[in-house]
Amino acid sequence: MNSAEDISPKLLKILETGVDRGAERLAKISRTNWIIQTVSVRLAQMNRIAAMAQADGQDYGVFLSMDGGGFLVVFPEAEAKSMASAFLTQTEWEKPGARMEELALSEIANVIANAIADLLADACGRAVFLGAPVTEKKKAVELLEELPRKFPPDSGAQTLLVYAHMSSSSLSADCMVAIILDEDWQRALLKAVEA
Amino acid sequence: MKFLIVDDSEAARFMLKSMLETLGHSVIGEAGTAEDAMAAYDKVKPEAVTLDLSLARGNGLEVLKGLRGKGATAQILVISGNSQKRVQEELAAQGASGFLCKPFNLEELAAALKGLR
Prior knowledge:
CATH topology of chain A: Chemotaxis protein chec
Distance between the termini of chain B: 14 Å
Oligomer: heterodimer
Largest sheet of chain A: 6 strands, antiparallel
CATH class of chain A: Alpha Beta
Strand order of the largest sheet of chain B: 2-1-3-4-5
Strand content of chain A: 25-35%
CATH superfamily of chain B: Response regulator
Radius of gyration of chain B: 13 Å
Structural class of chain B: alpha/beta
Shape of chain A: globular
Number of strands of chain A: 6
């Protein structure tokens, strides 16, 4: 995959289906139906992804590693609060002193990332385990700037940025998922979508 | 049944504990890493384990293999957002008693417990 034009329609379909499933799972968490209004996918070299993020506002970033790549799920702070509240209302969790918002968001990100990982893994006939989520509160641009440092420079890793706007009757949330894939993953995916 | 909950997420452990207790079960131990899960199993000797696949320092499949490898007879319900075909096949091969996809509600948890092999 060398440019945005290299993202095949079949791969786009896989990613869109993954986001759809993520929304279905979010519906169960928040007890409301979610509608995906827009989904866009862009391919970027690791050293260029930071330039693609919006610069203003704080965000929550949840990183989940996997062999040969990883997922960074980013929620704008304002929307993250309502997402976390929906999750925490369901659990009726009141634990003084706990970083409830971060803990709830890491679980929500885990659900979304796994929904996409399932489809990528099944398409390639692989078994993939995501690592425990690591949550940080920073600007999206900073989260993306730090992403390349998590991977060896010679891994040939590239990033697919998936933007989704999901809304429900009570909540509205923008969510960005950066999917990092090394050369081996990229080859396997291209082979799978060309088959 | 007496349960050991293995999940890296404190929020998920809290939610699951609450649900299990609502269903009349008791939770006698919790662990958030693969290493802690193995140690907790030996310590509390549960009748059943709920096992997440995403763990800090390891994964749930390694814990499943480790527990079955040392003769653990507890029923092990894998609870995860990971529902990949290859992973499901491997879990069945390694002796998982059941699987429940995250997120889930109380009714789905009750059905999964009823269906444990």
